[in-house]
Amino acid sequence: MNLFILSSLIEPAVGLIFWTTITFILLLVLLGKFAWKPILNAIKTREKSIEDALASAESALRDMRELRTNNEKILAEARNERDAIIKEAREAKDAIVNEAKSKAQKESDRIISSAREQIVNEKNAAITELKNQVAILSLEIAEKILRSELSSNDKQKALVNDLMKDVKLN
C-alpha cells in the first residue's frame, strides 16, 4: 500500500493533467485579460515616464552646459571689463600724477625764477647802496684831505702851483 500511494503520487493521473491544464489556460486567459494589460500599460507608462525623465535630464544637462558656457562668457567679459577699468584707472592715475608733477615743476621753476630775480634785485640794491656808501666815504675822505691840505696858505699855494704844472704839461 505504501508503494501504491507512492507510485500514485509520482505518476499523475490523466484527469489531473487535464484539469490542471484547463485551469492553467483559464488562469492565463483571465490574467491576460485583467492583469497583464494593466501591468503592461503600467510598465509602458513607467517606461515612457523614465524616457521623458531621461530626455528632461538630457535637456537640463544641455541647458546647464549652455548656462556654464554663458557664465564663462560673462565671467570672461567681466574680467575684460575689470581689466579695462583697471587700465583706465591706472592711466588716469598716471595722467593725474604727471599733471601734478608738471604743475609742481612749473611752480618750482616760477619760485626759483622769482627767487633769482629777487636775489639779483637785492644784489643790485646792495651794490648801489655800497657804491653810494663808497661815494659818500670817498667824498668825506676827500673833504678831510682837502681840509687838512688846504689848512695853511703855503699848502694852498703849493697845490695851485702843482695844478698849474699839470695843466701846462697836458
Percent of residues in helical segments? Answer: over 70%
- Given as residue ranges, the uncertain stretches (5+ residues, pLDDT < 50) are none
Q: Distance between the terminal alpha carbons, to the nearest Å?
A: 196 Å
Q: Treating each run of at least 4 consecutive H or I residues as one helix, how many helices?
A: 3
Q: Judging from the principal axes of the Cα atoms, what is the shape? A: rod-shaped
In round numbers, the mean pLDDT is: 86
Radius of gyration: 67 Å
Oligomeric state of the chains present here: single chain
Biggest β-sheet: count, sense, barrel? none
Count the E strands. Answer: 0
Strand content: under 5%
Annotation keywords:
single chain; 170 residues
Topology:
Layout: H1 2-10, H2 14-149, H3 153-169
Quick overview:
By secondary structure, the protein is mostly helical. The chain has three helices and no strands. It has one domain.
